[in-house]
Amino acid sequence: MLKRIETYFEFTYLGTNWRTEILAGVTTFLTMAYIVLVNPAILADAGVPLAAATAATCLSAAFASILMGVVARYPIALAPGMGLNAYFTYTVCIKLHIPWQTALGAVFLSGCIFLALTAAGIRQMILRSIPHELYSAVASGIGLFIAFIGFQHAGLVVRDPNTLVSLGNIKNSTTALALFGFILMVTLDIKKIRGSILIGVLTVTGMAWGLGLVHWTPAVGGLGSLAATAFKLDIRGALSKGLLEIIFVFFFVDLFDNLGTLVAVTKRAGLISADHSIPRLNRILFADATATVFGSLTGTSTVTSYIESTAGVAAGGRSGVTAIVTGLLFLGALVVAPFVGIVPQAATAPALILVGSMMFSTITEIRWNDPLVAVPSFLTLVLIPLTYSIANGLGFGIIAWAILHLVTGKGRKQDWLLYILAALFLARFIYLGSS
């Protein structure tokens, strides 16, 4: 039986094993477990019952990650997306006074659009239309993004009213502990010790608890609480209130955040083919679209692929087993939700910084001596962390690529979809600037 499973997940071809895949799954879970606490807190501001939102977060992340692992066989974990949950709460529900049930209806409809476009092959066409040179820029940009988040969580980079950001206080206990964890993880990685990231996370967690640095507030949850949000979405209300614009935003941001994450994770894992195509792309996109529909039915905002999946890939994860292990841990979080917050940011921050540095290696694949490639790649790479959005960075890169190729007479008819994407991104940025 185990042999058949190993064959299905191509263990031999990928050069992996059960120990590596399980450790990678645990690593991914530890770096993104914060969503079990953060997502419900954000949705609660929109009026979603906190306990139900916690259960919906765990269940949707579990379902989506396991589905991705079993069907697509990739080490990509999913959960309700940060940014999209804030848009759901603070723009749609609070600013526009839309009930959360109606907003869930909009999320459901955006997921259905995803499924329809995937079935029609349009999402696949969109991904193939993006120049492969931008893949490297996206991967490096997400590496910077992840590292930037890690630096913030570690307290090494802090807000500054004059310069936006500044250096934090390295004498701060959390910052010092995070730096120790980073050195430990890098040292173990240099010595080729398997599970270096996981060992570092667990070591720093133990030290933080021993030093009394963990201020842990138990979460609420449990499968029974899900009754308050499950199937409470108002699809008819979303249609009758003319929420096409909101549905489009959910769709647009998730589409390009997901594509960016997909490119970054597969590239970091060495799973992109020589012709720059991604094997089993249809299955990946199907799993992602289904996850959003499922999430809306349980009572949470858009579910999407997580860039923290690269932590599991850095730990050696190469197959769908990594995602399945992560999903099973999210399923377990339904029962032990009160204990999910025991891992402090001081422990996960160095993992994010290390993974970010590893992902930045793709920068060497960009032809920096060719402005037609270098400028769009630079914009993509830099604006992903600076705007806190994969979609924004990729959007500016695509716009720059299209404009530069057109004005220099290097445009090609077969790139028509790229130009349409550039126009859509430009229209989106103009709309955001006027709203």
List descriptors.
435 residues; two-stranded antiparallel ribbon; 4 strands
Characterize the structure shown.
With 435 residues, the protein is mainly α. Helices cover 68% and strands 3% of the residues. The strands form 2 sheets. A two-stranded antiparallel sheet has the order 1-4. It has a two-stranded antiparallel sheet with strand order 2-3. Helix 7 crosses helix 13 (244-268), helix 9 runs antiparallel to helix 17 and helix 10 (173-190) packs antiparallel against helix 11 (196-210).
Number of strands: 4
Radius of gyration: 21 Å
Question: What count of domains describes the coordinates?
Answer: 2
Classify the helix fraction into a percent range: 55-70%
Strand order of the largest sheet: 1-4
What is the string of SSEs from the N terminus onward? HHHHHEHHHHEEHHHHHEHHHHHH
For the termini, the CA-CA separation is 57 Å
**Sheet bearing the most strands, described?**
2 strands, antiparallel
Number of helices: 20
Percentage of residues in strands: under 5%
Shape estimate: globular
Task: Give the uncertain stretches in residue-range form.
Answer: none
